[in-house]
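As described in the Methods, two query proteins were run sequentially through the folding procedure within a single session, without resetting any intermediate state between them. The first query and its resulting structure tokens are shown here.
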Amino acid sequence: MTVNKSSDMTTGNPIKKILLFAIPLFIGTMFQQVYNLVDTMIAGHNLGDSAVAAIGATSALYAVIIYFASGLNSGYGIIISRAYGEKNLPKLRKAVATMMVLDGAITAVLTAIVLLSLRYYFRFLIHRKIFSMMHTVIYL
């Protein structure tokens, strides 16, 4: 026996639905922030100031990539939401599959571009002392 625990967000109290939807997102964001804090503390304690500087130097690049992916997925979400609202299951499946394929392809392309251009990009922005460590952080 299967239990369907999905919720139709198109009916009912919208504030309650949005808050119930947002709470797990908030908790996930908090865990990500705690992870970043602990990562920086461990790197600073065990590897020194240069490691913390290398992590900080790469955070802007990570942020650009994450925000780009988030924007893409928000756009995909519009198409998926419309298909779900229309209760058009074939369109919904096609939209989700297309989203996953495009995300995979864009991830592969962005990864290749970043890894190939990393030395040239950061050569002008990063102090030589932390450059090799920053390069290692990105490749991890």
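Immediately afterward, the second query was submitted; its sequence and tokens are:
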Amino acid sequence: MREQFKHLTIFSAIVLLGIAVLWGCGDAPSTAVDLVGSIEVIGYLPNDSLAEFIDVTLDDQPLGIFANPHTLTDILAGMHKLGVVTWDTLPSDSIEEYSRTEYVTIEPGQVTTAEIFLFADGPYEGNPAPDFTLYDLDSNLVALSDFTGEIVLLYFFVST
């Protein structure tokens, strides 16, 4: 009896599996458009003018340097990390880099507009360093902003 029940259970499982395969386990996308969308990337400089070109990364993968604005096509629908960088030559003939990273959601079959407002990055003259706090050698909490207008030398070391 137990052996017959075992065979019946295995047979039932096979029949149910066959039905699931024939009917499918859900509606499959009818076309590739159901899976992908596009991003129109527009990079703005801090003065709200359009950057001439943009260097674009998507999910930390470099895609290239493009004229601004630029549309990326056939992007898998969902949330993506979009990075945009550009450079500008200043009147002093120095080059300043502007960048921004944002998360964008791509809708299937749609064009998503990503207006990226770029800001200056890095240790350029006129750009304040980000504020932070640390303990000094006397265990006092010190903020970088406490030294505004002064030259600051940071020396990190480890002792064991």
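Helices lie at 2-23. We note this only descriptively and draw no conclusion about the first query from it.
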